[in-house]
Automatic annotation (TrEMBL):
Residues 59-189 form the Peptidase S54 rhomboid domain. It comes from Thermococcus indicus. This is Rhomboid family intramembrane serine protease. It is found in: Membrane. InterPro entries: Peptidase_S54_rhomboid_dom, Rhomboid-like_sf, Rhomboid_protease_S54. One of its GO terms (biological process) is proteolysis. Keywords: Hydrolase, Membrane, Protease, Transmembrane, Transmembrane helix. GO terms for cellular component: membrane. Its main location: membrane. The chain crosses the membrane at residues 7-27, 58-77, 98-117, 123-143, 171-188. Pfam families: Rhomboid (PF01694).
């Protein structure tokens, strides 16, 4: 069965995103000559260097940065949470919407990073996208379960705990989380209407 079992276990979109992140890290490691820690030169090229985005027109970095990681522990933790949280959201919304949440949330986090961190800042990581996935999950459960207050508290605690870690880009986390929560609210409402329609037997459009 080979690799197909992992697509089945984690979801085809989630595992594809995982493979892309790992493949990019392999390239980073080769360019850096070190698989454990990526050089700042490589991160400035493949990640998000605010100065290059603003002055060289490297706007593509706002997308590539969400697949770039600074070291083996960084990608290890992020890919673990991608597999655990991504497959849950993919099971609820499907593969296309999972990818949409990843990309839109990651982009929001990187744009906020561009606006609020100094021009010489270099950042990278899937954290903004992952916060978007988790924010979407939390709010969907809050809306469907009728406990939005609990969902907002959970989201705030998640952000607070992760913001205390060293060398964390809190702006990427915040941007991804807020956008993910907005997406979760939209789909949570749709799911709840659908469940109510099935429960009471009226049409759903």
């Amino acid at each position: 069965m080979g690799v197909e079992k992992y697509f089945y276990r984690y979801g085809k979109a989630t595992f594809t995103l995982f493979l892309i992140n790992v493949a990019v890290y392999v390239v980073e490691s080769i360019l850096s000559g070190n698989p454990l820690s990526i050089s700042i030169e490589v991160l400035a090229r493949l990640g998000q260097w605010n100065y290059a985005v603003l002055n060289y027109g490297w706007w593509w970095q706002l997308l590539t940065a969400m697949f770039v990681h600074v070291g083996i522990l960084h990608i290890g933790f992020n890919m673990y949470f991608l597999l655990m949280m991504g497959r849950q959201l993919e099971g609820i919304l499907g593969p296309k919407r999972l990818v949409m949440v990843y990309l839109v949330s990651g982009l929001a986090g990187n744009l906020l990073t561009l606006l609020l961190l100094p021009p010489n800042s270099v950042s990278a990581g899937a954290s903004g996208a992952l916060f978007g996935i988790v924010g979407t999950l939390i709010v969907i459960m809050g809306v469907v379960g009728g406990n939005m207050q609990g969902a907002l508290i959970n989201a705030f605690v998640l952000f607070l705990i992760n913001s205390l870690l060293p060398s964390v880009n809190i702006y990427a986390h915040l941007g991804g989380l807020v956008v993910g929560m907005a997406i979760g609210y939209y789909y949570g409402k749709r799911i709840k209407r659908h469940l109510m329609a099935r429960m009471y037997g009226y049409g759903y459009y």
